[in-house]
Amino acid sequence: MKKTIVLSHPKLAESAVQSFLLEGLNWLDAGVNIIKLDQKLLRSTLSLAEQRELILNSAEVFLQFPLYWYSAPASLAQWQEELFTDKFVHDLQEKNKVQPATLAAVISMADKSADFGAGARIGRTISELLSPFQAFAEKVGFSYRKPFIIEQFNYQTPKQQERTLIEYLMYIADADASFEQRSEWLLAQLTKIEQTANSAILRDYLQQQLDEYRLLDATLGEIKNDRE
């Protein structure tokens, strides 16, 4: 079963974060289908029938978009309205009874996560703002995964952006659940990277991350042994 990313952005060609993430997807072993929604056309270049086929045959569907005025771009809402007819919703529900799929959200935003929540500058949590997507997931029989949040990408240093990309790829690859999964994924990426000048920076960064995870895992193990 494949993964499908539904990308909604009113000015995709001008988005530094989306361009960075899309380029990074080339490093994943498994192919990822991408449905790009255009703000002008309000539709992908794929037909609705082709898109339904992709969604129906995906083990995981990612809704990827910037958080504008605490909501998703209009193209995503129109895509949902056009694609998810009563018949297609029924087909998804029946399919998910046998082969449950997952819905996840990848959100980029200009605010800090610390600005959200009771008593903060924005008096709502991110989970509250994204709750319609959780309700949508439950409606069609998807399980709902904790969202991946990218905050203030344009203000991040190059090193921070690299870390964001690695964590994003782990999220897409379902390799972010434990230290062991993260370490195995990082090692696999190091093994497959070609020895080229263009990959040297990424290879060094992956090695650094792997070393950090191993050190942290060993430290946690020592703490656990001391307590026992």
TrEMBL record:
The chain positions of domain Flavodoxin-like fold read 1-161
Pfam families xref list: Flavodoxin_2
InterPro entries xref list: Flavodoxin_fold (IPR003680), Flavoprotein-like_sf (IPR029039), KefG/KefF (IPR046980)
Query: Which keywords appear in this protein's UniProt record, sorted alphabetically?
Result: Oxidoreductase
Q: Does the keyword Magnesium apply?
A: no
Q: Which GO terms describe its molecular function?
A: electron transfer activity; FMN binding; NAD(P)H dehydrogenase (quinone) activity
Its recorded name reads: Flavodoxin-like fold domain-containing protein
